[in-house]
Amino acid sequence: MTRRLAQVAKKVGVSEATVSRVLNNKPGVSEATRQSVLTALDVLGYERPTQLRGERARLVGLVLPELQNPIFPAFAEVIGGALAQQGLTPVLCTQTKGGVSEADYVELLLQQQVSGVVFAGGLFAQADAEHGHYQRLAERNVPVVLVNASIEQLDFPCVACDDAVAVEQAWRHLASLGHERIGLVLGPQDHMPSQRKLAAARAAARSLGGELPDDAVERALFSLEGGHAAAARLLARGITGVICASDPLALGAVRAARRAGRSVPGEVSVVGYDDSAFMNCTEPPLTTVRQPIEAMGRAAVELLVAQIQGSTVPPGELLFEPELVVRGSTGQAPADA
Questions:
Q1: Which residues pair with 158 in a beta bridge?
Q2: 301, 276: one domain
Q3: How many domains does the chain have?
Q4: Which of 44, 168, 239, 247 could bridge 234 with an S-S bond, Cβ 3.0-4.6 Å?
Q5: Residue-wise over 187-224: b if at least 16 C-beta within 10 A, else e?
Q6: Least-confidence region, from 29-38, 235-244, 314-323
Q7: What is the per-residue pLDDT for 4?
Q8: Overall average pLDDT of the 202-219 stretch
Q9: SS3 state of residue 182
Q10: Buried b / exposed e across 89-110, counting CB within 10 Å, b at 16+?
Q11: 91 DSSP β-pair partners
């Protein structure tokens, strides 16, 4: 008990006597100090005293599928900063291969009695994945906000970039450069944003008097290696313009073109998605469709805080407009295309 008092007191910057008064629910402590002590207790992994367990912690779970794709650290920075401005402490939960699963993180967050959870990418976007842990959050009335397109059965508010507009922008850009053989590198078949991108690509092709053949679409895990393998298959079929569902996939496509002895953008043009960090520093700088990360992250926190404060936030999707950023990885289609 003495060690716990000392650790919490040091974390908050108050005396052990003040921490003791909070833990024993005694008067004489400001509400701000009281909340700081309770948050420190949660962060340090100590259980709250029985009489204080009915209150939710001022903690918010921020669940990310990975950190290798720079778009997710970017979302974490925006969302974490916006939460801090609201007096909430983000708890970062990142999945790793063979590590703690998304469902396990949800159980841990429920044990900590968090005020809410933001999922920035994850199993909610995969139709064939396990979704029982989302149901547990709903049953416990824990405020939740999703970032990115979700399967239909989950009744949580969602913030997403308009995948259809993103692909239409990329497709029309390549078509304007004379590319007629355009292909896609997407995520798995049950991935909702990828499904939307595919539907949009087919619509864009039809609107320009063409079509998108099945062999112009490849699936991959969201990694540079996955993009390399998928794009190599497209290039072998004569594709000259490649639209990718993420920037790492696009960087893999650039590498595939070079390994095949083709120049980018002289012979192959590549478009990414996200405009994550350093895409203007690649060689060549990557043409990509920018997600408005700042606006989306802040909107997600606003929706979460509204729920925490007791407001009714209807389920549904708040769509944000993407922006095509043209750089050096796209150019005129080769003359023999």
A1: 146, 317
A2: no
A3: 3
A4: 239
A5: bbeebbbbbbbbebbbebbeeeeeebeeebbbbbebbb
A6: 29-38
A7: 76
A8: 96
A9: strand
A10: bbbebbbeeeeeebeebbeebb
A11: 61
Backbone angles phi, psi at 163, to 5 degrees: -60, -35
Please measure the distance between the N-terminal and C-terminal CA atoms of the chain and give it in whole angstroms: 74
pLDDT reported for residue 55: 56
Domain of residue 15 covers 2-52
Mean pLDDT across the stretch 190-209?
96
Half-sphere exposure (Cβ direction) of 336: Cα atoms closer than 13 Å: 3
Question: What does the buried/exposed string (b/e) look like for 300-329 if buried means 16 or more CB atoms within 10 Å of the residue's CB?
Answer: bbbbbbebbeeeeeeeeeebbebebbebeb
pLDDT of residue 50: 57
Alpha helices in 86-176 (DSSP H): 102-111, 132-139, 163-176
Helix or strand or coil: residue 230? helix
5-8, Cβ contacts within 8 angstroms, sequence gap of 24 or more:
7/44, 8/37, 8/40, 8/41, 8/44, 8/46
Residue 130 lies in a domain: yes
HSE-CB at 184 with a 13 A cutoff on CA atoms is: 28
Q: Who contacts 148 (Cβ-Cβ below 8 Å, separation ≥6)?
A: 120, 121, 125, 158, 160, 161, 192, 193
Q: Which residue has the tokens 């150019």?
A: 331
**Is residue 187 located within the same domain as residue 271?**
yes
Q: Cα(300)–Cα(112) distance, rounded to whole angstroms? A: 21
CATH classification of the domain holding 48: 1.10.260.40
Has residue 197 been placed in a domain? Answer: yes
Q: Which residues contact 97 (CB under 8 A, 6 or more apart)?
A: none
Measured CA to CA, the distance from residue 52 to residue 48 in angstroms comes to 6
200 shares its domain with 147: no
